[in-house]
């Protein structure tokens, strides 16, 4: 499995926020890749906005089921694997994952640990995944 990040902090889609920040995140998977998608809460109030952003970024179709709460990607090979809140603590070089998405459910802790361990973006950070 390949792991990728789609960040909605900055234009590169591969950047972390600066300073102490809390943001929403979702995990999305197809047969080859698991994506961690995250963005600032003030811009992405609902996890569905992150799913829509990823689908736009990848050029995939998305369909609103219940706006603004729930959007799906109808591609049969794509699965939304839950979401939550990601908290950055800059002076401790720490990222903490927790919470649950009301629309997509609880994220898989093991998937998130694998992703953070295998993603270069998190290499110099301490990562806590709350079950």
Provide structural commentary.
The chain is α/β, with parallel strands linked by helices and 131 residues long. The protein has one domain: Janus/Ocnus (Pyruvoyl-Dependent Histidine Decarboxylase, Chain B, 3-Layer(bba) Sandwich). Helices cover 17% and strands 38% of the residues. The chain has helices spanning 47-58, 109-118, and strands at residues 2-7, 21-29, 33-40, 63-66, 70-72, 79-89, 94-98, 126-129. A six-stranded mixed β-sheet has the order 1-3-2-6-7-8, with helices on both faces. Strands 4-5 form a two-stranded antiparallel ribbon. Strand 2 (21-29) and strand 3 (33-40) form a beta hairpin. The chain is globular, with a radius of gyration of 14 Å.
Short description, anyone?
The chain is α/β, with parallel strands linked by helices. It is built from 2 helices and 8 strands.
Tally of structural domains: 1
Roughly how much helix do the residues carry, as a percent range?
10-25%
Reading off the top of the CATH hierarchy, the class is best stated as Alpha Beta
CATH topology: Pyruvoyl-Dependent Histidine Decarboxylase, Chain B
Q: What is the correct CATH architecture? A: 3-Layer(bba) Sandwich
Report the span from N to C terminus. Answer: 22 Å
Q: Count every helix, treating DSSP H or I runs of 4 or more residues as helices.
A: 2
Give the amount of beta strand, in percent: 35-45%
The coarse silhouette is globular
Oligomer: single chain
Task: Give the full name of the CATH homologous superfamily.
Answer: Janus/Ocnus
* Poorly predicted spans: none
Largest sheet: 6 strands, mixed
- Listing every helix as H and every strand as E from the N terminus to the C terminus, the arrangement reads EEEHEEEEHE
Rg calculated over all Cα atoms: 14 Å
Q: Got a strand count?
A: 8
| Strands side by side in the biggest sheet | 1-3-2-6-7-8
